[in-house]
Design goal:
The protein is 66% helix and 0% strand. It has helices at 12-27, 37-44, 47-63, 74-128, 134-142.
């Protein structure tokens, strides 16, 4: 849907329901882990190639069980792959939701910023007109816009 202007609300009850649903979802996934940055980097290098290898090898083990070592429980690998596939489905849905949330947050922040800049300019103009009370507000708000531009060069006349 193209973005024009967001004019929506989210009730406190709906927010609570959404948070509860997220909490309930987390309870259904008690086995989730947190990898260290080092572990993430190590596993990330394996990427897409290892996914294809895993799937293909598991298919071969079903067709050719004689190659499975006796000391190995291949059912654990099948179960891990099944869990991986299911979690991947969940992640894809969450990623779509997350992308929508992120885009909406950015758009809302931009809408609020556009409105507050108008108010800021109004307060700035009021300060220039010596409207009582405007100077304190302007001085407080202008701190958010430090001037970092180039300093003007002095013109030396001969």
């Amino acid at each position: 849907m193209p973005y024009e202007n967001i004019n929506a609300t989210l009730s406190d009850a709906d927010l609570l329901d959404i948070c509860n649903l997220i909490d309930q979802s987390k309870l259904k996934l008690p086995f989730l882990i947190n990898l260290t940055m080092k572990e993430r980097k190590k596993y990330a290098r394996q990427g897409a190639k290892i996914k294809a290898f895993n799937k293909k090898t598991l298919v071969y083990t079903q067709q050719n069980p004689q190659y499975i070592p006796n000391y190995m429980n291949i059912n654990d690998a099948y179960a891990d792959q099944e869990l991986y596939d299911k979690l991947k489905t969940i992640k894809q849905r969450i990623d779509i939701l997350s992308d929508g949330l992120q885009s909406t947050l950015l758009a809302l922040q931009n809408e609020v910023y556009a409105s507050t800049r108008v108010v800021y300019r109004s307060v700035e103009n009021a300060t220039k007109q010596n409207v009582p009370g405007s100077t304190e507000i302007y001085n407080d708000l202008k701190q958010h816009f430090p001037r970092t531009g180039k300093k003007k060069k002095k013109v030396i006349e001969e």
